[in-house]
Amino acid sequence: MELNLSESRSRSIRCIVKLGGAAITCKNELEKIHDENLEVVACQLRQAMLEGSAPSKVIGMDWSKRPGSSEISCDVDDLGDQESSAFSKFVVVHGAGSFGHFQASRSGVHKGGLEKPIVKAGFVATRISVTNLNLEIVRALAREGIPTIGMSPFSCGWSTSKRDVASADLSTVAKTIESGFVPVLHGDAVLDNILGCTILSGDVIIRHLADHLKPEYVVFLTDVLGVYDRPPSEPEAVLLKEIAVGEDGSWKVVNPVLERTNKKVDYSLAAHDTTGGMETKISEAAMIAKLGIDVYIVKAATTHSQRALNGDLRDSVPEDWLGTIIRFSK
Known about the structure:
With 330 residues, this protein is of the alpha/beta class. The protein contains eight helices and 15 strands. It has two domains: 1-52 and 84-215, Carbamate kinase; 224-295 and 303-330, no CATH class. A hairpin with a 2-residue loop joins strand 4 and strand 5. It is globular, with a radius of gyration of 20 Å.
């Protein structure tokens, strides 16, 4: 595995952000983006990333024609007098939501078997879907003046072995960050040494990136307030505000104190979700926390998510903050 990370560590990676598919897409409507949420998320990311005073005007970087518009929006004339904005180093990874999961589940891409025509066709269809979403997210962030670069794991040489990351050339990611850009990766269909192919989830990608880039903190933006002791749609569901991870990787709820300390968290999973849903998210978050990196799971496009993105929770957590913190505890 090629890892050229010395440059990226010359100045610390501040945060890796996971945009949950359910938060940025309408998960029950095929290939439909949640435009309002995505717009707020982009604005919050810009606020969190900016160092020093913010410019009076946002200079957008999406100079492409948008659907329903007859003109190309280009702010190039405004760039001449604009001072360069200083952004702290962020990496963005997003899930697929209503993009990709349908194609993958219908064809069985996540199970492997590229010799089957339906799996090969599904592999192509899945990648078309998720890369389309990646482009739209890159464009949304670029419209907020964030210098984003879309990066597909398949095209960057990521592959797996029985669904575990087998290779990942992170030198391109490191060089992109050092050049002042914000990489935007996504869950993708990739080749697998044993299965032939599978789905590499955004949550697994984040854990791998965190292991090598060592960010100050990681934020998972979801469609619910955080992790609950049961599906949040149930009336007696309790928000778990803090989960402690031990040296052996095991975890326990420390806030609130539950009636039964060995009480397990119940997971709900959409029928078409091929990446493991919340269970995978907690498992990967626990492995990140074991590295000594705090993980915040919080609802996207809220005041709570803005505070998490800003890094406001690192020293102390306000009582009125709603979300889940997963951190290492010796």
